[in-house]
Amino acid sequence: MANLFPETGDMVWTDVTEPEALEKSGAVFGRSWRFDFEAGEFVMSPTRKMTVAGDKEAWVIWCEKAIRTPRYRYVIYSRDYGSELEGLIGSSSRALQESEIRRMVTETLLSDVRTQSVDQFAFDWEGEACRFSCRITNVHDEMETIESVVI
User: Where are the domains of the chain?
Assistant: First the structure.
């Protein structure tokens, strides 16, 4: 009988990172689908196929999605996934809210072993909404700046 799951050379996934670094940190970087948070949909190629994000970009997408997903709302996610930023605005002084945003975002992103640090927060208030950005660094010392809004 023919094999239902044939393996060919083009189906083998290879790991490009050094095995020693992975063993030390426990961090496994992988690929993901590209996602456009502004449009709220996956990024498609001109031939209408979903495009693939590499290691670093997939990690950045995970970070943005973790910040934007409310914790405890969706049963599909573990209780450790997501942030508790929802409902924070308007509850106290702006300085205290900025401090809480800093704490919550840092805790959310450091729950992933690929994230080494979260720092350099910047806040911009637009009425009751707070737009913030921060710098994230992974275990390979690659940095990226991400932005989000708390309403």
Answer: 26-150
Better pLDDT: 28 or 131 = 131
d(CA 6, CA 130) in angstroms, rounded, equals 52
For the record, the structure tokens of 94 come out as 């702006």
- Single-letter amino acid code for the residue at 54: G
Task: Say if CB 44 and CB 50 are below 8 A apart.
Answer: yes
Architecture of domain 26-150: Roll (3.10)
Q: 76, 50, 81: which is closest to 63 by C-alpha?
A: 81
The Cα 48–Cα 22 span in angstroms is: 34
Q: Are 100 and 88 in contact (CB under 8 A)?
A: yes
pLDDT digits (tens, 9 = 90+) for 48-86: 999 989 889 999 999 999 999 998 888 998 888 888 888
| Three-state DSSP class for residue 127 | coil
Our measurement of the distance from residue 143's CA atom to the centroid of its chain's CA atoms, rounded to an integer in Å, reads 13
Query: What phi and psi, each to the nearest 5 degrees, are found at residue 23?
Result: -65, -40
8: DSSP letter: -
Amino acid, res. 128: E
